[in-house]
Amino acid sequence: MALKENDKAPDFKLPNQDGEKVKLADFKGKWLLLYFYPKDNTPGCTKEACAMQESLRQFNKLDFAVVGASTDSVASHKKFAEKFGLTFDLLADEDKALVKDYGVWGKKKFMGKEYLGINRSSFLIDPKGKIVKIYAKVKPAEHADEVLADLKELQSQVKV
After folding, report:
1. pLDDT, tens digit, for every residue of 46-71?
2. Which residues make Cβ contacts (< 8 Å) with residue 49, sequence separation at least 6?
3. Is 45 a catalytic residue?
4. How many structural domains are present in the chain?
């Protein structure tokens, strides 16, 4: 069953790039963008992560957290975060439970080959843990700006 807007966000408890456990409850009372990306150190994923980092100060002013997630390991995330100066959490979902819970794991096609992987997408979660917006088919370089624009509008509409 696919997640929809207004659904309760599936819970999680996964290690970040420092091996520290991060859970959904850590963000209670804050807005959260949980974004899924295919692989550390690839061109699109790097663009998206760096754009999120560049916008982090604006997100923080809005009492808003950003968390990235992929099926890469803690060690891979650590190298990725250090290489690009990423200061937000990157969750290591090596057993693929989170990507499956959020429905972002599925068939992909590249150069005529089909394979299973993460479909780049994001979930905007309100301070009560409800999904208020789902971003599918994200454009990596533009996504942070898109979310910032939407967040300001949504914060005024959603009573928290």
Report:
1. 999 999 999 999 898 888 999 999 99
2. 37, 68, 80, 84, 86, 90
3. yes
4. 1
